[in-house]
Amino acid sequence: MNHHRAGQPNERPPVRQAEAQPKLTQYPDVNTSLRLFLQGVQSILGDLMVGTYLHGSLATGDFNPHSSDIDFVVVVAQPVCDDLLFALAVFHARLAAGGLKWATKLEGAYISQEAIRRYEPEKTNCAWLGADGHFARDPYLLQRVGRRQTWTSVGTR
Questions:
Q1: How far apart are CA 99 and CA 94, in angstroms?
Q2: 84-133 pLDDT, tens digit each
């Protein structure tokens, strides 16, 4: 005997599956650290974050899980002020202390769109996160992170 009212389907509505997270790299443990990194940076920078890119060995296909680090570039709408730089430094320290191997291998830059469009080292004030966890200002940063054509996007606003 069917106890459904007229007009009701005989089946339960399908359960929505959680959307699969996009695959950032071919390394699941690297992806875990990258997702935490992306979430944290987005929560600190908000609308200032324009895009996040990988460069270096992960972008060129030369990544070695035994010796590589994770090189990143975060493009921001305007230069990172000292307060945001401090918040990013605290975030990176907490992320590195969380026990994930690749969280301690993040090395990269926070660069304004203007610095990318018009590279003038004497006017550029980019923020650099070293592999040892310290931040510094570096006007010659774009020379170190390479040309944008070698960057791979992993997140945009």
A1: 10
A2: 999 999 999 999 999 999 999 999 889 888 888 876 766 667 787 887 77
With a CB cutoff of 8 Å and minimum separation 6, the contacts of 48 are 76, 77, 78, 80, 84
pLDDT of residue 139: 62
DSSP codes, 107-147: EEEEEEHHHHHS--TTT--EEEE-TTS-EEEETTHHHHH--
Q: How many angstroms separate the CA atoms of 77 and 97, rounded?
A: 29
pLDDT in tens, 2-41: 444 444 555 544 444 444 566 789 999 999 999 999 999 9
Look up the pTM and report it: 0.77
Q: Regarding beta strands 49-55 and 70-76, do their DSSP bridges make them parallel or antiparallel, or are they unpaired?
A: antiparallel
Query: Of 94, 93, 110, nearest to 50 (Cα)?
Result: 110
Length of the chain: 157
What are φ and ψ of residue 57, in 5° steps? -65, -35
Q: What is the pLDDT of residue 17?
A: 46
Q: Which two tokens stand for residue 74?
A: 């975060």
Question: Amino acid identity of 29?
Answer: D
Question: In order of start, what are the domains of the chain with their CATH numbers?
Answer: 49-156 (3.30.460)
Distance of alpha carbon 71 from alpha carbon 150, whole angstroms? 12
